[in-house]
Fold this sequence. Notes:
- The complex is a heterodimer.
- In chain A, strand 8, helix 8 and strand 9 form a beta-alpha-beta unit.
- The model of chain A has no long low-confidence stretch (mean pLDDT about 100).
- Chain A is α/β, with parallel strands linked by helices.
- Chain A has helices spanning about 1-15, 40-45, 55-65, 85-95, 95-100, 130-135, 145-160, 210-225, 240-250, 265-275, 300-305, 305-320; strands at about 20-25, 50, 70-75, 110-115, 140, 165-170, 190-195, 200-205, 225-230, 235, 255-260, 285-290.
- In chain A, the strands form two sheets. In chain A, strands 2-1-3-4-6-5-10 form a seven-stranded mixed β-sheet, with helices on both faces.
- Chain A is globular.
- The two termini of chain A are about 40 Å apart.
- Chain B is an alpha/beta fold.
- Chain B is about 40% helix and about 10% strand.
- Chain B has helices spanning about 40-65, 80-85, 100-105, 110-120, 155-165, 185-195, 215-220, 230, 245-260, 290-295, 300-310, 315, 320-340, 360-375; strands at about 1-5, 15, 95, 175-180, 200-205, 210, 215, 235-240, 265-270.
- In chain B, helix 9 (about 245-260) links the parallel strand 8 (about 235-240) and strand 9.
- In chain B, helix 1 packs across helix 13, helix 2 packs parallel to helix 9 (about 245-260) and helix 5 runs parallel beside helix 6.
- The chains are: A alpha/beta, B alpha/beta.
- The interface of A and B includes residues 63, 65, 97, 105 and 189 of A.
Amino acid sequence: MVQAVNDGLKSIMREDDSVLVLGEDVGPKGGVFLATEGLTSEFGEDRCFDTPLSEDGIIGVGVGLAMNGMKPVCEIQFQDFIFPAFDQIVSEAAKMRYRSGGQYTVPMVIRTPYGGGIRGGLYHSQSGEAYFAHTAGLKVVVPSTPYDAKGLLISSILDPDPVVFLEPKALYRAFREDVPEEMYTVDLSTTRDVVPGDDAVIFCYGAMVPVATEAARRVKESRNKDVRVVDLRTLMPLDEDAVLQAARDCGRIVIVQEAPRFCGYGSELSAMIAEHAVEYLEAPIKRVTGFDTPFPNTLENYYLPDARRVTDAVEEVLDF
Amino acid sequence: MGKASTIRRADPGTFPLHRVLQEDGSGLLDGVDSEFLPTEAKLLEIYRAMLTTRVLDERMLKLQRQGRVAFVGLATGQEAAIHGSGAVFETEDWIWSALREGGIAVQRGMPLREYIAHMFGNAEDTAKGRQMPNHFQCAEVNFPSWSSVLGTQLPHAVGAAMAMKRRGEPHVCAAYSGDGATSSNGFHCAMNMAAVYKSPVVFVVIDNGWAISVPSAKQTAAASYGTKAKAYGMPGIDVDGNDALACYQAVARATARARAGEGPTLLNLRTYRMGGHSSSDDPTRYRDDAEVAHWESRDPLPRLEAYLKAQGLYEQHGCASWREELVEEVAEAVNHAESVGPPALESLVEDVYAEPPKHLRRQVVEALRIVAEKGEADAVEGKFPL
Lengths: 320, 386
């Protein structure tokens, strides 16, 4: 996936010279995960440049670049380091179009690796999607495959609004997939059915997509039931129609997120389904999530939802 | 160069200030460098803008006291710093303002009706009534609004300036803040990054001595705000902010430097907030009358007026009638604003994104249904505290 991100950046930068990449170590080093490898040598230091160690500066400068005709792609090295820039994201980028009545806009992408699975402890593992999805004016996109990573990233860069683009670092090098060389887009606010099925549905995104897929396979074995797996891909604005349709089709619902449970993204999803499709439900909505704790280190594998826990939840809603 | 006053309790200490004008405005100080001094036309522009801001503020405060506008942040006492510096910039330059620099938008051509529409937050407000009063914007003159979160506009100025530089434009960004915001993250990262990238930015601190109730002596242990520039690797100059000519000259020199690709400069324009922080603040709770009286005697408006008179410009250009003209123009704009209604309820969900997503469309339909079935919303009774 990390190569697809790199390829997406190169494709759009070749087409549009207002696209700039900035962040810590994104220049000659190519980023700590090598997502920006080769950009400075191909496009020069004025299009892909290292910044001082200043997340609020990266995003603040990105906002100014975007307001004045550029399309900045800001990298925050780990999503855990984004909080110094929270003010710039929440108070400035997210609200600029609104507070100016549409006179000023921020077509900016904030790329950042999120989530666990690399033994990174408290500060290299968090999943903060709910903070951003809660903030009006931001779009939140989470790819789960190399193909989607490239297509969604290009769509995000072309989008007229600020996008928080959360890259599941656990999947950066998890598997290979052919990705077209040319530029292409995957529409934002569309979901993807990963596995078909009508007996139950698992809603998931990012690094939880392969986990949910494996759980669906195990449930086919254990219960001979067809479990649909829906990759949400864009958390805000969500394709509500697709989610509600899947909920109505299946009637038994499991939501998987690696973030803590309380006020997590799954809470909103669960409430939305309850508000709009309660008459179709045949079992309580189950969530499989991280614990309501800071992210652990040694016991990381127990914190993260795995196929075991997701299978258990799906079996529970099927048996209800 | 002269000595700063020590009367002001807010002073972190005494240090030299760049000065041009005699204290009484009767003429220039001896040995003043004539380079970058304002032309006669610029002097008149500055005076007119200062007077406009004074007249606007007087009227806005009255309206606030009458409950006709909700809030106002006055620039009284700071007009030389605001408009002396503001006169330097071309229309293509961008102005990043804070609470008290809205008058610069008017100086650059923002219509008074638009300015006052914003104070009322009515349907003619270009920001559709979404910001509190005193958060002016005017895209036609490259003047985005500030957010209320102090210092956040400063890195935006750096980014916008980087875009100018990248396109090879000869423009600059003017990055305004108050003295309080020099303690903010935004000030630090903007100063640092502007210097690293040699961005064409002119940082202008309007140092009025008070951040709401916190004096400069408690804001910083630095000898002056201007000295902060040194650590970032850019020049920093402390200027008599009640001396319109000195403000213009120092900012013009820094702007020429930025246009020439030599990077940013920090100007600290030392002035005084003669009134409260805002229409809701009572400054007698935290500062001495003597300090205020001292600065009232240094009011920048009569000081520049005295200079224009000494130069014969005041009479030659009929400046004596300007105040009355401005009072009438403002009154006309206020009358007009009071005839305009609030923005449409539908606008509540516009401009969150380029296109309103489904959940926002649903929310506004729901709001309209409630109005149709249950009537208009209850009034908000709360009062803004600061």
